[in-house]
Amino acid sequence: MPILAKSNGISLREHVEDVLKVLNNFSIEPDLKEFLRKAVFYHDLGKVSYEFQKKVGGNVPEDGIPEVPHSFLSIAFVPENTLEEMGEDLSKVFLSAILYHHWRETYLDYLFGSKQGNVREAFKRLLEVGNNLIRMIKEEMKDFLEYDVELNRSLCEYLSQNSILDSGLILPPHLISLLPSIVLKELNLKDDVYRCYILTLGTLMRADRFASCAEGVGKKDLLERADIEFKEDTFEVIESDLKRRYEKVWQSDVVKEIRGKNVVLVAPTGAGKTEFALMWSKGKTVFTLPLQSATNMMYERVKKYFGEENVGLLHSDAAIHLFLTSLYRKDFEDREGEILEIAEQSRFFSYPFVVATGDQVFPATLKYPGYEMIYSVMANSFLVIDEIQAYSPEAAAIIVKTVEDVNTLGGKFLIMTATLPGFIKDEIIKRTDLDEGVKDVYDSIPQGRLRRNVLKFKDSSDPTEEAVKLYEEGWKVLVVRNTVKKAIETYQKLAEKIGKERVLLVHSRMTLEDRKEVERILENYRPGMNGESIVLVSTQVVEASMDIDFDILLTDVAPADSLVQRMGRIFRKREWTENNPNTFIYIGKSKKEFDSLIKGVYSKDIVENTLKALSEVILGLGEEKIDVLFKNLPKQQPFSLNESQKRTWVEKTYEKLELEKGYMERFRKTLDVLDSGYSSEKKHEAHRIFRRISSMSIVPENLKEDLVEELKGASNYFEFKQITSRYLVDVPLYDMDGSLLEPLEVEAQDEKVLRWTSSLYVLKGSKYEKGIGIFLKEK
């Protein structure tokens, strides 16, 4: 009977062959690939033990080896002379990669804690039964023995008496925060040995997990598509498309100088930064954005250039986005398997282009278990970071640290933004090899000279009447409110005055299904499209790379960079030729109303500095106190704000902040923690820190019974996610009364469904209205 690697009947030999097929598909350096072939051969040999075989349904004789992770045993079958030939440094990398390739939280107990005795006893027992296990391995792997297999007796003898970590044979695990500072100096990405370890372990993890995934779904053909290559030149593909649409393609001249080099691109909103990025890349491209909605739009955009077979989508609800999009196109029944493949292959960065939310990439900088897989991809990729200014200060610091690490590993990065605060730019320059520094194209491209925004300040906090008037004049109107509550109130007023069918609402507290429906309608409001006159009411979700083009903007006051992003959603590639304003900023009638517009959302210091910088630098009014500005700004005649002025406005806003205040203080403190060698014990903890998660997904009380009934029919996780996409809503913790939460009780025969629903809660007193959002019981 074969030695099993999986409980689904996959044998050890079959699994090793599958992992090697995946590895052969990877585009990596030949020397590293050969080193990894050897690691793949040995990585799972420890599965020969009786305790492991018993778990997966194998049938081997009892061997008396206590239960320890199989990877701990695998290192015992690497011959001593094989390790000697590698030399001390590479042998450490080799054994460490095998040992940690299946990291579990329980490993700490075996390395540091109460189960160290099990490990010593296991190696002691191997000295007695190891030869029998070797015979079984050779029988299993016959005709496939590329490398020698023998019991490393000296290693077993030493580890039967000593701790693995004390042996000096392996590198310490990822949890470097547990280690003394003298060790931390060795665990540095600038060290060639540690860099080799990251690439070896990360690539082994990626190949092993991809093979396991393909085996699990019974689709071995996926093994040949683990690392798809795009054979055309992306520069030529994009350039030829742009030349068909535009007389002048500014990207061509700029990219030629800096293609594939580390660079920060500062360009106006709507200038074509996406096309620039796709022309800049010279290989596997990982394109990151802050929000799912913007990521979904970008995925559809990139797919039009390179085809669905070459583009992956990576975020927590990617499969659901693909499902709902397919459903709208009425081809879901023919493509269900294909959709799941796209989602799975995206997780392993198999596509030449992967569009992802930042939270799928940047938390790796916090060194959670398994972060090496992300880093091994980044070391050979072109990382595009769009809209860095849209992240929280903590997340922005994590991104800066990621860029530093990617640069050290040998990967390349492009940061694109319309507005980049100076202190972030300075930190990036200080920490990386910016081959071309900061490429500012505001003054050298046609879009930089367009007159797109004429501003007018309003001494009001309610844009409803103005929105109705402008809509009735035939304009497409975008209203941006700073809070969900105000957005819903404005939507309801507008729906009453001009009809629900003429008003759209989008914000973060809607079900995924409702948000997707709005995104589908907004396809008709992209640049160049001729959507009918409507009013779109939104929150900050429109700021980050949402590819829409409206005529008029009515917005609550906000920080300069947020206002510039909002302005970029109107007249994206057009010039405003009217003398009347098309951008209205609402600051309230009084200081109290002003405070209510930004309370709990933005730093008061930043927003006040926004108004001061505009008054002083753009309007030339001199430095005035904020109370005076409230009175004077609404009295100003409408004024133009060109793209260069917008950039200056943002720079001056942040220059005015004191060094240790608010945003900058949080940014620098986070960088200090990361520089000290912080690592996260768990992946979900790293994601929580990056997202600054302060909300939870809940079931509105009025939808509870319908959800419970639907879940009775869920037979797999994909169906579970499809169903819950219609019912779950994200709600900030500060808006919830925790005493009103109760677990969702589901009747289901399938234990998996019960497990999946165990983390779902109903919020009593909450009510959901389709297309509008959730209403909460007052605290």
Q: Reading side by side through the largest sheet, how are the strands ordered? A: 3-4-2-5-6-1-7
Reported by name, the CATH topology of the largest domain is Hypothetical protein af1432
Strand content: 5-15%
User: Roughly what is the average pLDDT, rounded to an integer?
Assistant: 87
Helix content: 40-55%
Number of DSSP E strands: 20
Secondary-structure-derived class: alpha/beta
Show unreliable segments.
176-186
Largest sheet: 7 strands, parallel
* Secondary-structure arrangement, i.e. CATH architecture of the largest domain: Orthogonal Bundle
Counted up, domains total 4
> Counting H and I runs of at least 4 residues, what is the number of helices?
33
So what's the overall shape?
globular
User: What's the N-to-C terminus distance?
Assistant: 64 Å
Radius of gyration: 29 Å
Q: Report the CATH C-level class of the largest domain.
A: Mainly Alpha
List the helices and strands and how they pair.
Layout: H1 12-25, H2 30-43, H3 50-56, H4 70-74, H5 80-86, H6 88-100, H7 107-111, H8 116-140, H9 153-159, H10 181-184, H11 192-217, H12 234-245, H13 250-258, E1 263-266, H14 273-280, E2 285-289, H15 292-306, E3 311-314, H16 318-328, H17 332-347, E4 353-357, H18 371-378, E5 382-386, H19 393-409, E6 412-417, H20 422-431, E7 438-440, E8 454-458, H21 464-472, E9 477-480, H22 484-498, E10 503-506, H23 512-522, E11 535-538, E12 552-556, H24 560-567, E13 583-586, H25 591-598, H26 604-618, H27 626-632, E14 639-640, H28 643-655, H29 662-675, H30 683-691, E15 695-700, H31 704-711, H32 717-724, E16 729-732, E17 741-743, H33 751-757, E18 761-763, E19 767-769, E20 773-775
Parallel strand pairs: 1-6, 1-7, 2-4, 2-5, 3-4, 5-6, 8-13, 9-11, 9-12, 10-11, 12-13, 15-18
Antiparallel strand pairs: 8-14, 15-16, 17-18, 19-20
